[in-house]
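Fold this sequence, please.
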Amino acid sequence: MSDDTKSAPADRAASGPFDETEANPVRPYIDLGGIKVLPREGLNLRLEVEEQTKRIVAVGLDYAGSTLQVQPFAAPRSTGLWEETREQIRQQVRQQGGRVEEREGPLGPELLAEVPVIAGADGSGKRLARFVGVDGPRWFLRGVIGGAATNDVEAAAQVEDLFRSLVVVRGGSPMPPRDLIPLKMPATPGSA
């Protein structure tokens, strides 16, 4: 398998994550710019902001006892970014002294990482994280799953379903591959 092919579930166009051209136009999505989120019971939405630049760098979703952090990136039309991104994540996790294994998940290849966290006085905590990624048409959606969905099958299915309900809005403007597609605050506060 070549490094640059797109990596996505075979039914991505029908079951998500969706391109804006594939999304159901009548559904009441929360518009966050590069990502649209379908509200659902028990879903809590957070925007992660970079201190220096004040720009929104990720969307955090709390759901089913789990966390899902997502970031949409611009990608080339014909090649994918997930292969290369997985390699970068592997290196980062190992540099942090963590362990990482690749496995075939419901969304395609994913990484399961065990990352040491400085927790409490003994500092011996470990955090499990699942890194998932899907290459779409001219975009790449990366997700980091934490909490129950790293080891509980039912929670995992709910969070995977949430990931697949997302819509990526790439926009028509030219963007270098690997650039974060701009995210914004939802237009109507309090409606989410």
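The first helix runs from residue 12 to 15. The chain has a mean pLDDT of 92.
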